[in-house]
Amino acid sequence: MLNSLTANSSISMWVCSSYGRSIYFPKIKRGNDNLEQQVQALFKAWFVDFEPFKDGEFVDSELGMIPKAWKIKPLEYLVEKVKSGDWGKDEPTGNYTKKTFCMRGADFPDIKEGNKGKMPIRYILEKNFNDKSLCDGNVVVEISGGSPTQSTGRIVLVDRAFVADCGNALICTNFCKSLEIKEDYSMFFYLLWQYLYDLRVMFIYENGSNGLKNLNVNSLIERESFVIPTKEVVSKFNSVVSDLLSTKQANGIEVSRLASLRDTLLPKLMSGELKNSEIETEK
Asked: 22-73 pLDDT, tens per residue?
C-alpha cells in the first residue's frame, strides 16, 4: 500500500510539474499581472497625466486643463446599452434549451487571465440568449457582493478570442450586468472603470442590507464624469496596448490548454491506464 501511495504521489507531482500549476501556471500569472500593470500605467499616462500631449494645446474645463477637442462627459456617454444577466437551468428543461457558458463574479480572476476557469454551463431560453449574449467589446460588471473592504463593481472586458473559446455561447449571471460600449472605446472604458474602482469610487454607489451590497450602475454612469478623448486618440492608444493584450490572451489560452491536458491525463496515470513513458511532453 505504501509503495502504491508513493507511486501515485510521484505521478501526481510529475503531471502537475509538467502540465500544471506547481511551476508554469504561477509564472504565467505573474507575467499577466505585469502586463495588466503596464496597460494601467499607460492609461494613467495618457488620460490622467496627459503625458503624450504636453506640447499640444490645452483648454480649461470643469475638471481642469485638458487637451483641446477632448470633452468632459458622464460615463453613460460611452454606454450604448445596459443588459441584465441570466441563470437559467442546470440542464435542458422545457424551453430552456440554449446551452451557454455563464460568467459569474467568481470567474472574473480566471477570465482576466484569458481562460474559462470553472465557469458553469447553463441552459436558457433562446430569446433570452439573443438579447443577453456577450460579444467582442462588451464589459461585464459584478453588481452584487463585495465586502466591507472590497466594493462591488469588479469588471472584465470581453474580447473576440474569449467568446470564440466559449463556442460563441456566453452570457453573464443575473448578479452582473453587461454594457455595450461605443465603438473603439471598450478598452478605454474598461481601464477607466478599473481606475475609478482602484480609487474606491464604487463604494459611493452601493446600497443594500443584511450584508449583501448592490451597485447602482445606472446612477454611477450618470453621475461620474471624466475626460473623453477623441476617437483618433483612442484608436492610437488601442494600437499601443494591443500587443500587450494579445500576449496576455495567448498566455491565458495556454494555461487553459495545459489545465485541460493535466485534468485528462492525471486520472489515467493514477489508474494505470497510461504510463509516463507513453506521454510526449513539450520542451
From this structure: 445 555 555 566 778 889 999 999 999 999 999 999 999 999 999 999 999 9
Q: 0.85 exceeded by the pTM? A: no
Residue 71 backbone phi and psi in degrees, to 5: -125, 155
d(CA 142, CA 186) in angstroms, rounded, equals: 17
Contact 192, 75 (CB under 8 A): yes
Q: What is the 3-state secondary structure of 38-91?
A: HHHHHHHHHHCCCHHHCCCCEECCCCCCEECCCEEEEHHHHEEEEEECCCCECC
- Alpha-carbon dihedral 228, 233, 239, 242, rounded to 10 degrees: -10
> What is the dihedral sign for C-alpha 100, 106, 112, 115?
negative
